Task: inverse folding
């Protein structure tokens, strides 16, 4: 149990961490830091009881905290690290919830020269198409995976504390390298989000003539749900992990071109094989989920 | 109420029509036609009580039927029409459940010279990633849309009977032209299915090195669900509507290339706009659903 947890960025993820930590009794006190321009959101977080108190002065917010968790869009993290640097406390555990990890390492290195040994890079694989503290949900991390990407010199006690914290929130904690994380997540999360944004954008422009959305069925609804995700967060993620994402988009384009060619040349049997391969791959995926 | 309904193709859709029609009391007797090679499926349909009787002789199956509904993959319809032709009865109402309509018109014209006036082209916008009669569900069509694409000389009594039938099954019935149907469905159903097959296929090939599926979260699961759809059915749909689908794939590729370029040149503001446009389009879609 921590005495005092500071959340930097009380949106969907930061707010859900706070709510879950409170319900599980993991912290005596939960505070938040945010900028003056986010005052309304901070006040809402306090009114909703998500946090006990908020500060627009970062040095006040983190004072006497055991743990500081940064849950802002990954593009803002370097600025946050610069603000934290003058007050850095080697006894405090710092962690984040960023969807890309290489970019967080780069930002920490830019500010501190090297990643501080008491900073634990973490990523809860959970989210929702809603954003903001009003959508915070204490069950958000239950039965979800959380990936920690430790570095060679990450302090063991900090690593264990963060790992235990997330296990208490209901997550299944895994460890992998920063690079592997960014490769896997580009495929499993970043690319699908881009595909959904691209599809709904394309159809949105056609909709006035075509009434497409009126006749959209279940498959499309599922497919398009993630196109409602927070644009700021996704702008940041896509730019932060573009080295992984750009080649994946290319490979996906190649895949689509192949299907396009099979259609153009009426190659039914090859289409059938392509679709069957995908169907079987998804079945492997489902079987794995049940393990 | 019909005396005798014949379903040709008792899979997910045909079986669900039969189950729903029985529960709603719309038919005295429900029979099915299928090929000898599908005997096991026909027997299962009878054992499950989905149909009263089945025939592997089409002339026996349709004898004294008020209504014949063809629910086979669209690629098989021309063969079915050839089998039906010698026994064509102007007093019977014929309809289908094909996901493409232009191809059904073409097949009817090839066999009959012109689309018979007692054939009502219909498409229930409902489905599931499961297939086969065991997955048949009498609620499948409830609160779903059904599109009828009448031709200039479609008989009014046949049109009304089919429309009423589907309304009784719980569907909201609309009418549009064959061409408009195929344009809209290419965008709202056919393209999304191809995107899902392409994504799951691509990731399936990478999965062994990457453990991608292990770390896939909700967005991916939603997105990939339709990749479990029946490959035979989708091979047929894609080929039948390729004139609409191929240019849409091209437009989608252009959309992805734009995003790829924005990433490569770090154009955060333009990415934000792209994602925001999609998010707003989806919100319009959701608002429309609630109307």
Result:
């Amino acid at each position: 149990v921590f005495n005092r947890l500071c959340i930097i960025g009380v949106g969907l993820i930061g707010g859900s961490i706070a709510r879950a930590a409170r319900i599980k009794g993991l912290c005596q006190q939960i505070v938040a830091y945010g900028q003056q321009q986010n005052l309304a959101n901070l006040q809402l977080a306090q009114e909703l009881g998500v946090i006990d108190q908020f500060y627009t002065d970062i040095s006040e917010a983190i004072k006497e905290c055991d743990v500081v968790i940064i849950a802002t869009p990954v593009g803002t993290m370097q600025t946050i690290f610069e603000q934290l640097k003058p007050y850095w406390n080697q006894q405090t555990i710092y962690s984040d919830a960023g969807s890309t990890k290489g970019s967080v390492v780069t930002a920490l290195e830019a500010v501190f020269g090297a990643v501080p040994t008491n900073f634990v890079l973490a990523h809860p694989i959970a989210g929702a198409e809603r954003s903001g503290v009003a959508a915070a949900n204490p069950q958000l991390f239950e039965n979800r995976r959380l990936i920690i990407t430790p570095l060679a010199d990450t302090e063991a006690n900090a690593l264990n504390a963060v790992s235990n914290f997330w296990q208490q929130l209901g997550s299944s904690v895994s460890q992998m390298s920063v690079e592997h994380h960014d490769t896997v997540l580009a495929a499993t999360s970043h690319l699908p989000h881009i595909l959904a944004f691209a599809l709904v954008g394309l159809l949105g422009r056609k909709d006035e003539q075509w009434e497409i959305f009126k006749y959209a069925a279940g498959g499309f609804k599922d497919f398009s749900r993630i196109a409602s995700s927070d644009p700021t967060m996704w702008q940041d993620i896509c730019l932060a992990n573009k080295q992984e994402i750009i080649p994946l988009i290319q490979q996906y384009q190649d895949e689509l071109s192949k299907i396009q060619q099979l259609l153009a040349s009426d190659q039914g049997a090859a289409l059938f094989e392509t679709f069957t391969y995908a169907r079987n791959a998804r079945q492997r995926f489902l079987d794995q989920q049940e393990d």
